[in-house]
Fold each of these.
Amino acid sequence: MSKEKVRVGIIGTAFAGGFHLRAYKQLPHVEIVAAADMNAKRLNEFCSLNNIPNRHEDFRQLLKQKDIDMVSICVPNFLHAKAAIAAANAGKHIVCEKPLATNLKDAEKMLKSANDNKVKLMYAEDWAYAPASIRAREICNEGGIGDILYMHTIESHSGSHSMFAQKVSLCGGGALIHLGIHGIGCMRTFIDKKVQSVIGKTTGGLNKNLLHKKLEGEDWACAILTFVDGRVAIIEGNYVTFGGLNDCIEIYGNKGNIKVNLSRSSPLSVYSLEGYSYAVEKAETTKGWTFPAVEEEWQLGYWKEIAMFVDCVRFNQAPPRGLSGEDGFETLRIAMAIYESEKKGKEIKLK
């Protein structure tokens, strides 16, 4: 029997909280009943603008509301585990932004709490269910490019504006755990095999970075992943690319290939001497030739993944491949192995 309404609380009302909110608002079977944020000014603006009836500066108070079925965790990375475990113990289903946690020990605790309390822990990897990714998988599944042999993914831009992205203790790393992790999570929905080994290379943080000398984590990262059946993939994430968000997936088969551009495929071309308010995420300027996004959050997959999470709760379904807590854990495990490879200067075998 399905739920007529899924009642949602949003924990964290900054950048990620905003696009979760806008995705939920597209859905007729969702009611956003509460939000929480330590920043009272931001919280009050968020709730007032969006007619959210309950606001809490302490997320633990939000979790006490008996009318909440599911929460979105949109706080900085180092708080994911604390918020998710508390939510599980309160009996709430959980949507957690990427990365699942900043370390594997915390991620394991999150999974255990969800299992022990019989709630769903769902991993918000938007690339996996962006409309273009879904279509690419459909073409692959019907044999359009033959057998997949190799994949290459990249997410890049010129750097995070968040204060929480500047220190490893708060976010778990740098460009790999913030950007490259999208590619890891997404490619696992195309190649349904375990990753057997990784070879990683990153800049060293601070003065060893290419561009961002005050950033503790790496500003550039790349890795080669080898799957158990011999197929390979390259993932890259960097903060040294100007011109706005660059999200690309390339899939190479023995009978063709597919190239997906999630962020730079706008049907609009604009030339402006004066500039204007917004073109694409992370773009430094809107002067000259630009290609402004149309329904950017839909195109990047946020609306589709949130709709899937709501259906999981409404109909008591398991999350699709790529969007479960276990998928988030495996993606993080691969990322941590890449960091280990860079540190030790050798290929790392995954157990």
Amino acid sequence: MSTVMHLNLRVDPTQYIPQIREVPGYDYIHLVRHPKYMTDLSLLNEKVYYLNEIYSKRQFVKNNHISLLHAHHGQLGILLLPFKDKTNLPLVTSIRGRDATLANQPVGYLENMKMLFEQGDMFFPVCQYLADRIMDWGCPSEKIRVLYGGIDLSRYHYRPPSLGDSQNILSVGRLVEKKGHHILMQAFQKIKDKFPHATLTIIGRGELQESLTSLSEKLNLGDSFRLLNHLPKEKVREHMASADLFCAASIVSSAGDVEGIPNTLKEAMATGVPVISTNHAGIPELVTHHQEGFLVQENNVDELAEALEFMLTHRELWEEYSIAARQKVEKNFDATQQLLLQAKYYDELLGGS
């Protein structure tokens, strides 16, 4: 069995653990840059190492029988170029969102990415939108394999949308600008008087928590709005199961940061919750307007308000949308299938081993 050395930002459950530890037919070595990035000690084992403590790259590769290098962000691919140079191993780099932009990047980032495109062997953008962006930067198309992030469908059981009177709208995601929570809150405020029993719940944590709390007061959302701190996955699934609509109001941030495709949107679709989202980044690869859900122009409060009103007044469409949505996720975003595809791409680089 071949061993892949993976480098990701930190060791925690949100950081692509299955794509590191569960690739069929491949063993793993799990690197982070420094011990401070070992953020979840339950995931610490004898296969976790720290890049800053590796003094001989060749010896490390030999001792651990490593055949392939995989960096899980563009920035980390740049960091592994010296490792590739010393060991002559093939290097794969995943591209996940911000790393295909110049948002908050260090000086020289684009030049370094161009060097990575030249020297790296394969790139896994998480959607076609990001594939197109890195091709615009000069990445050769023959090195690109779009690899959608999959979800574990055994944890998300489809249930038909509720035919009751509840109007619970849910959004889940980090409290950062590109998630568009502030746009959703303003859109919700516009429809609140028409739907006095509707509620909006946002689950997440991040730098905008105080700002969003202030916004809710400014908009007089009152008891119809809840901002819940980051919750364990099982609690999020409980909220998902009781939601009537899910909204991901993703936007390009003022610094230029973008999404790939939000996993929470895939999870809602797998669960059978009708979805509203935006024509942002790779989202239209997941949701086709009026087929698996409802899409609006990003960063547009009025359009999003109209979408909320449309969905709340056309409950008869929910089941049709939700069935199509579940089928779309099963077809293209099933974690089991995506991990098999990842293994197939590794095989390509290693000559079918």
Amino acid sequence: MRIVELRLHWVRIPLHEPFRISSGEVSAKDAILVELTAEDGTKGWGEASPMTGSFYSAETPESTWKFLCDRLVPNFLSRPELDPQQCSDQLAEFPGEPFAKAGLEGAVWDLRANRERQPLWAMLGGSARPIETGAAIGLFPTVEELLERVNKFLGQGYRRIKIKIAPGHDVELVRAVRGRFGGIPLMVDANAAYGVRDFRVFKELDRYDLMMIEQPLARESLEEHAELQRQLRTPICLDESAEDLEAVQKIIRLQSARILNIKVQRMGGLWRAKRAHDAAEAAGIPCWLGTMPQLGIASAQGLHLRTLPNFLFPTDVEASSRWFADDIIAPPIEVSREGLIEFPEGPGTGFTVLPDKIAKFRICSEVFRL
């Protein structure tokens, strides 16, 4: 199989409401789509999906676009590697820029699956099964607005609720949700907003029977996370800290968390995310699949990865209509009244990428031909 063309599409889709966490917010979703075309016409799609701005990660749409155009794509096309695992190793020769790597590697996985007429989950070693999903709810100006969102998403079938917290906006929010909705599956996400002086906050939260407390401390504070975990009954889940396979192995060694959030984009692709999942499984640490959030291509590929056996908690992948005014795949990702996502049968992800939607939301593109 020979590649004849690679196209990059930078798209921007408005959000229904701002995505707010402790360190910032965005009101539109930027993504860079990678379109591979083989000589027989078979296509593979990937998505590099960093947040706009730098409040979540050092990588931005601008830096990811530049890295793809100037370095990653030219290097890939100079020696195309279409075995996904070997491609992942080849991309790892470049330091940093995991979102760019995830987008290109995702296109290689999709091309291979489409060419071999296999579903992506089978190539990853998963099993076909519906995916449990939960709703992630950002910060709001008032507690009542938060409670309205919780009620809305419970009514739509989501199987667990995650609420964002920040210093000064934490115990009060959990108390209000528990007071209104009782013993629903509930977790909190601090996005690394707290320090060791705030341990008392988490000891208070420990009283509320939470599923987990996600990333309470800074990304590099693994020993501090281990100490906090020793003081809590509630499991700590690490997200920002689990940035690559080496970090995951250190988390395991230090016992910094009892749960891991694996994000394909942050790990630099499906293969490295699978290896992190496997390392956690071998250590007896359950995982769940997180998201940025992402558009349909990356979300669909993540759902296929979620079929691996050690993903034991509901995913953050939500319905396409949850955040986005539109999406670039058909059918859209939908959540059943039972809180499940089922993907279509067929090769690759089973979803169809829609060129007309890409054209509608595209802000720039680049074409590379061999």
